[in-house]
Design goal:
The protein is α/β, with parallel strands linked by helices and 567 residues long. It folds into three domains: 4-192, Thiamin diphosphate (ThDP)-binding fold, Pyr/PP domains (Rossmann fold, 3-Layer(aba) Sandwich), CATH 3.40.50; 203-374, TPP-binding domain (Rossmann fold, 3-Layer(aba) Sandwich); 376-565, 3-Layer(aba) Sandwich (Rossmann fold), CATH 3.40.50. Helices cover 40% and strands 16% of the residues. It is built from 22 helices and 18 strands. The strands form three sheets. Strands 2-1-3-4-6-5 form a six-stranded parallel sheet, with helices on both faces. Strands 9-8-7-10-11-12 form a six-stranded parallel sheet. β13 (399-404), α15 (409-416) and β14 form a beta-alpha-beta unit. The protein is globular, with a radius of gyration of 25 Å. 50% of the residues are buried.
Length: 567
Amino acid sequence: MYTTATAFLEALAEQDISHVFVNLGSDHPGLVEAIAEARAQGRALPAIITCPNEMVALTIAHGHTQISGKPQAVIVHVECGTQALGGAVHNAAKARIPVLILAGSSPYTQEGELLGSRNEFIQWIQDVHDQRGLVRGYMRYDNEIRTGANVKQLVHRAMQFAKSDPKGPVYLMAPREVLEAPCEPVTIDMERWQPLAPIALGDKDAKFLAEKLAAARRPLIVTSYLGRNPDAVDALQTLCAQLGIGVMESVPSYVNLPHDSPFYLGNFWNDPQRSDDLAEADLVLVIDSDVPWIPSKNSPRPECQVYHVDVDPLKEQMPLWYIEAHRSFRADAELAIRAISEAARELDLSSQEVAEKKAHYAARSEARRARLAAAETRGSGLSIARLMAALRPHIDAQSIVMNEGITNYQPVFDHLAPVRPGAMFASGGGSLGWNGGAAIGAKMARPDATVVAISGDGCYMFTTPSTVHWIARRYGAPFLQVVLNNDGWNAPRHSALAVHPDGHASKAGDLDLSFSPAPDYGAIAAAAGGAATFVVDRHSDLADVFTRAFAVLKNEGRAVVVEARLD
């Protein structure tokens, strides 16, 4: 029988969704039957991936989309499953990750009037006033499927929102009776359901910005997620070489410029001191960044000209946000940069001035790399610099790193020093626990890749490692997990001492943030997913341990956990 559930699955295939990450419940008999029927009839289906934890399901979809560029789908159980998506919803929304979420809802009949009517006690308990409202503030679009007659149109409309800038998650819900109901097949012309084209920067605005950048003595570009489009990175390199522009990353979630570029000046996060390059700039062009700097700590000088290009320059979902740009422009990063570069070709540039700018930034970039190299041999303890220097030789052109180092975000980026777009990612959001599921998503999107996830010990616990490593083994998606064990949560410690540097907390021996006695992090993964485990400290031969760890990952196809006990 052709049902609403059948039509929904067909709509996913029409959207070229390759994976559906599911946590099924009592609201999904229609979907379970439709999936089984499709398999029995030999009809094409997306891969159905069982996920014992809903947040992990959405996190895998998040990671997959970051690598593949293609949206995926997640199916969860009523309002309970919707709430269990939790922080992963925040991350997908803030990182502008297109993903389709379908939740069931409690049946709306209770006396057997329709197929799918209530027959379990939880279906009264799970009936809430506004299920969609639980996530509406994070969604690009939400709706309820009420009939199979237009379920495909609802799915395709939702995905138009999800895939049009600013991209993001979408949410549909459907009660059992609707999913069970028979309906007539509908033929869809997908050419009529395409997302909106990226927004271009107008010629006049491109010329304006090209002239401003060319006239500046110390022009600087600040970005965070321009690298989500690798072609934008190529365009940025061309523009920097053309006009002599330095680049800094603020809270990067992608590789926005190769770290060996003479124009790459580093990255900053919650740095308590002002960046010398940002302080020196007389013009800053912010492209694709939600937090280009923290005004109370690190911002351009008052006389600096600030311009802003973004697909969402008003940051419409952020109640408090402004950088007081002199002008802002709504445009796609790649198209904007290429337009500025094209306009710059028409300018009468001074080759001497451009050469001076390029030499200045090349010297600054080289000095930064020398400082980082010196840090990797300094001291005898196990520092992040030393650990990442030992890991770096194993990161090749087929490697993908998912970085959720939290207080160690910056040194992980700095010392792994990625040189190609798509080599390293962060979540782009603020809810911890992304890296484990994201690593699985990356491996599913790129089965030939060597995937490495890096997290703090507290963040590792947030990933729900038992679920993550079970899924990794079940679906053949092994990765190497590096756990940075610094005995608990460092981020709240930093926050407390930043606000109360001389308060009682600064003198207290226990801030209720320690994980001592520490769990056996590797044993959790071993029990759930058969992972191999290693522990390193200041006395370990790091080169030997990483060589053995990667050999297990690549030759045995098993996940690996390396716990690094930092000093």
